């Protein structure tokens, strides 16, 4: 009897062990809690600062600019001289050219003398014509000469006057040519007038600081050569290139957060402008993208970002969508079911599949409009083998 009882108990134990071995075990899963709070959908890109207004001071004329003593960071006031421009000295002449110029000047002197002789000859011819006219008029009054001869004499006087005027003009032109030939040799004469030439003062167009000195040393520069850049470092803006599909969702006035700029605080800003023209940019993966520049104004107090300068790197977060008191779940808990999204909710130790309406999502969270309540436990990264109703346990 005792042996039968022992065999029965042993059989029941063996059957219990076999049944336990074939019972499905609970799947270990990672859990997260449905929360309610602020939901943000952002566009994140790398941007850089730039001056709102930049002024390039250039030379208005060709000449010799004096050495610029200003340094980067120096403060300048409006209409104060920032550079001095001297007239350019004429080109140097070699010995052969100087001798040719000297001989040419001798030829010009001879031309002036010849022109003066022509003037004297024309003046003498005019006096002769006037004398003959006076004699003819006297004989006409006495009746010895016809009045027609007086008319011929007057025409001759007018002709001689024009010849004298032409000779005087030729003499004046020869004198100017002689002066022109002397100019090339004047730089070698003692008491040159180069030292007496007046300089041209180039003045600052605005008050600000020197950003860059592009022509530090003295030298000959053509007209339009950039000398230095001026600007006001306290008037900064941020420019960032973003994808055109993201830019279509951003309106002027959209809030912006600026981080990783070197300071401990997050700076606040707002979008002032989305430029109307886009451009093509090749990404690091070799993909062509259409991008457009967004210009951002810094709204935080200047004392917080005093260390920022022109061309500094910042991380830009454009808050495209902000919803308060939104029901949120991790995006890793969602998976597609047809045209909708679903997730697993843990109820009494079992996974229950719920279809939800996702209004928006960002990189980490999704805003769920319906189907969940705050405090529920959901499964993140659900395994592909998990089914509705499966037993689960928290990992």
> What is the percentage of strand-forming residues?
35-45%
Task: Determine the CATH superfamily of the largest domain.
Answer: Efflux pump adaptor protein, beta barrel domain
Low-confidence stretches: 190-195
Number of strands: 22
Tell me the distance between the termini: 49 Å
Number of domains: 3
Name of the top-level CATH class of the largest domain: Mainly Beta
Mean pLDDT: 84
> What is the chain-wise order of helices and strands?
HEEEEEEHHEEEEEHEEEEEEEEEEE
Rg for CA atoms:
49 Å
The shape is rod-shaped
Q: Reading side by side through the largest sheet, how are the strands ordered?
A: 2-11-15-13-12-16
Largest sheet: 6 strands, antiparallel, barrel
State the helical fraction: 25-40%
Here the CATH topology of the largest domain equals: Elongation Factor Tu (Ef-tu), domain 3
Using the 3D structure, state the CATH architecture of the largest domain: Beta Barrel
Instruction: Give me the secondary-structure category.
Output: alpha+beta
Give me the number of helical elements. 4
Describe it for me?
With 395 residues, this protein is α+β, with helices and mostly antiparallel strands. The protein has 3 domains: 38-50 and 234-394, Elongation Factor Tu (Ef-tu), domain 3 (Beta Barrel); 54-85 and 202-230, RNA polymerase II/Efflux pump adaptor protein, barrel-sandwich hybrid domain (OB fold (Dihydrolipoamide Acetyltransferase, E2P), Beta Barrel), CATH 2.40.50; 95-186, Helix Hairpins, CATH 1.10.287. Helices cover 29% and strands 38% of the residues. The chain has helices spanning 2-22, 95-142, 147-186, 244-247, and strands spanning 27-33, 35-51, 54-58, 63-65, 75-76, 81-87, 200-203, 208-213, 219-221, 226-231, 236-243, 255-259, 267-274, 279-282, 288-298, 313-330, 335-337, 340-347, 350-361, 365-370, 377-380, 392-394. The longest helix has 48 residues, at 95-142. The protein is rod-shaped, with a radius of gyration of 49 Å. It starts with a helix and ends with a strand.
């Amino acid at each position: 009897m005792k042996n039968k009882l022992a065999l029965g108990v042993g059989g029941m134990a063996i059957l219990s062990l076999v049944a336990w071995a074939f019972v499905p075990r609970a799947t270990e899963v990672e859990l997260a809690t449905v929360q309610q709070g602020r939901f943000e959908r952002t566009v994140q890109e790398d941007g850089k600062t730039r001056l709102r207004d930049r002024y390039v001071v250039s030379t208005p004329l060709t000449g010799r600019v004096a050495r610029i003593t200003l340094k980067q960071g120096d403060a300048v006031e409006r209409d104060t001289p920032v550079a001095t421009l001297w007239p350019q000295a004429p080109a140097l002449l070699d010995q052969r050219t100087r001798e040719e110029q000297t001989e040419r000047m001798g030829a010009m002197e001879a031309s002036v003398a010849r022109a003066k002789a022509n003037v004297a000859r024309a003046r003498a011819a005019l006096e002769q014509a006037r004398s003959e006219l006076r004699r003819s008029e006297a004989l006409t009054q006495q009746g010895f000469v016809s009045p027609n001869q007086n008319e011929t004499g007057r025409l001759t006087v007018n002709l001689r006057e024009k010849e004298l005027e032409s000779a005087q003009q030729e003499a004046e032109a020869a004198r100017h040519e002689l002066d022109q030939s002397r100019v090339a040799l004047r730089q070698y004469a003692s008491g040159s007038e180069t030292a007496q030439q007046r300089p041209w003062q180039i003045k600052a167009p605005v008050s600000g600081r020197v950003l860059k000195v592009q022509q530090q040393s003295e030298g000959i520069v053509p007209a339009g050569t950039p000398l230095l850049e001026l600007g006001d470092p306290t008037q900064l803006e941020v420019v960032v290139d973003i994808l055109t599909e993201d830019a279509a969702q951003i309106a002027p006035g959209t809030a912006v957060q600026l981080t990783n700029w070197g300071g401990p605080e997050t700076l606040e800003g707002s979008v002032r402008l989305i430029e109307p023209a886009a451009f093509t940019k090749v990404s690091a993966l070799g993909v062509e993208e259409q991008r457009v520049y967004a210009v951002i104004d810094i709204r935080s107090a200047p004392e917080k970002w005093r260390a920022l300068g022109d061309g500094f790197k910042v991380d830009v977060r454009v808050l495209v969508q902000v919803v308060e008191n939104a029901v949120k779940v991790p995006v890793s808990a969602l998976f597609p079911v047809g045209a909708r999204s679903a997730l697993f909710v843990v109820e009494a130790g079992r996974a229950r599949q719920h279809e939800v309406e996702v209004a928006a999502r960002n990189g980490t969270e999704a805003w769920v409009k319906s189907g969940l309540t705050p405090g529920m436990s959901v499964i993140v990264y659900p395994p592909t083998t998990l089914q509705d109703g499966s037993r689960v346990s928290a990992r």
